[in-house]
Amino acid sequence: MVNASNVDSLVGNLKRINLISGKGGVGRTTLAATLAKASAKEGKKTLLAELEDDSGWDSPLARYFGRKHFQVEPHEIDRNLHAVCLSATTGQEKFLNGFLKLSSITQMVMGNQGVKWFLDGAPAFKEMGYFYHLLQQLNNSSYERIILDMPATGHLIGLARLPNVLLKMMPVGPIAEKLKEGQKFFYDKTQTAAWVVTLPQALPVSEALELKDSLLKEQIPVGGYVLNRAPFNPFTTEEEAILESMSTKSKTHKLMIDLERIRRLREAEKRLSDSDQVWVAPETDNPFEEEGFGFRVQKFNP
Fold this sequence. Notes:
Blueprint: E1 17-21, H1 28-41, E2 46-51, H2 60-63, E3 75-78, E4 81-86, H3 88-100, H4 103-111, H5 113-121, H6 125-138, E5 145-149, H7 153-169, H8 174-186, E6 192-198, H9 202-217, E7 222-230, H10 237-244, H11 253-273, E8 278-282, E9 298-299
Helix pairs in contact: 3-4, 3-6, 6-7, 6-8, 7-8, 9-11
């Protein structure tokens, strides 16, 4: 339950399914990790998920929890916290196994190089693998919260667009049934929200506004924006006025830079709050290691 201490925190306003989105470099993965940690700390059975990275590099999200990668089956990484790596191949295998009924036939089909080339090249079939693997996690009613770190904007838009695109081509059949099942999760604002992470700078804010429009176009409910790395304001109103009147060439140059960062933060808060609700994550050296940081992501009240 949400208590009085976190009613204005992002953790207290999370839905059951939370899609953490945003352009690269805005701190999306760090936020996903801290929110999952805080959600588990709150006593909610939480699943932290990411999409498989084909690069072969270690997972930045898994590294926060002392691992190189998450497994393709949910596994416990902390108290009340499980993790999973969503794999296109695993999703394809699970779907075919459910459709063909015999795992031996599935292994034979997936082991055929020609079939693998077809699946890799078939339009949207890779996304279908991710989609089906994710759908299995969504159907697990034991998870009170699911937090999905989306590695790129295109993946989220692709997953959001997938059901409508494929249902036009295949309106009936086993694939259509699974797509419709997924739609019930993705498009339900009572249990799903995409959170658009950005920074207090003009370009990232513009990109966040565009991303929100794209998500809404695909019928994905948007919970709001998360303005990350928000600088602390050490100045009183009177001090700000004095600094404004001083030259940037003076010995107060560092203070003028700080003041300019505060100004950019206010402009970002204004632009985003004109479009939707905004939560602000304070700037800190290592948010994941800071105890209770997830609860410090607070709602901005203009």
